[in-house]
Amino acid sequence: MERRLNAVLNLMEQLNVDMLVVTQPPNVTYFTGIPRSSGIALVIERDGPLVALVPALDYWRAIHSARASGLAVKPYAMYKLPDIDLQLVEPPHVYVAKIVKERGPRVAVDNPYGRVGFEIERIPGVRVVDFSEQISDLRAVKQQEELDLMRRALSIAEGAVEKVLGELRPGVSERTIAAALEYYMRLGGADGLAFESIVAFGANAAYPHATVTDRTLREGDPVVIDVGAQVESYSSDLTRTVLVGGVSSEVKRAVEVVSEAVDAAVDRVRDGVAAEDVDTAAREVVRRAGLGKYFVHSLGHGVGIEVHEKPRLAQGSKEVLKEGMVVTIEPGVYVPGAYGVRIENMVLVKKGGAEVLNRLPKIFSV
Length: 366
Fold this sequence. Notes:
The protein is α+β, with helices and mostly antiparallel strands. The protein has helices at residues 2-15, 25-32, 59-65, 92-103, 115-121, 132-140, 144-165, 174-187, 249-268, 275-288; strands at residues 19-22, 41-45, 50-55, 71-76, 106-109, 127-130, 192-193, 198-201, 222-227, 229-231, 234-235, 238-243, 300-302, 309-313, 326-329, 332-335, 339-342, 345-349, 354-356, 363-365.
């Protein structure tokens, strides 16, 4: 946590600002360790205290969960609380504007369009810098403690997938399998879900962002399972396609092609490589197999506190992979009205290549 704060103090020097104001919940969590940080504003001054303005109802939770040393937690309320035994401060948009007026005209905010940013913008003579991109860049390169949490989150998700394999039999519903996955992730130690789980049978798997339905599993259906666990605010993201019974030769071939595309992309990952080139490596495999028109999304994305972070592995991306980034490799083939397959691994970018964080096989048959 201290390294992150030191990095942001260096950023203040680069931007030539006196104060940083952080209001986006994932960014607040990144710098403080406080989970579910909606409504919290973080004020970082070059020579002043590190202050978290916290809704009164979250004050004690923030005190107990904050991991940043030297953090002053100050409660506020947007409405009257006459009997509360706390010394309340003004809400963030008032508190921050008052400090800016008193102490300095150079401020950087991570959300200039939010209420706090808007109030600062209204102050005459104040120069406001949007530093949301710089924070995204900081968060994209993971430190060891972040990697440890993400490995745990991935292990929990994979354990849940292993457990439901024995429950995939004709007649079971998507809804039942989704509920089981989420139950096993919670039992396995997840604090929550990284995103809404996807469980899609047969033709439903042709929707990349399928929603869980009451459709029941039939012999020969491919099953797409896309799940993620969250541990201490850090996410995992995992997809497997399970082949149930006698699937068609077309589906088998598509799964094999997608698996080969994963391998081709992973082989391309290393520090200094263009994100677009990794997407191209996977896309070429699918195209050569004659399935290119069915690969309808980008290859992958960064993962961290949010399940979608920098960088974006896609055609047209200008981003470059850096050591310490964790990205997904998730090619897919989606034939509308027929079937869909997707395989997704999480990989750590290193100097000489990629470390695949997953331990599960890429293809399952039950």
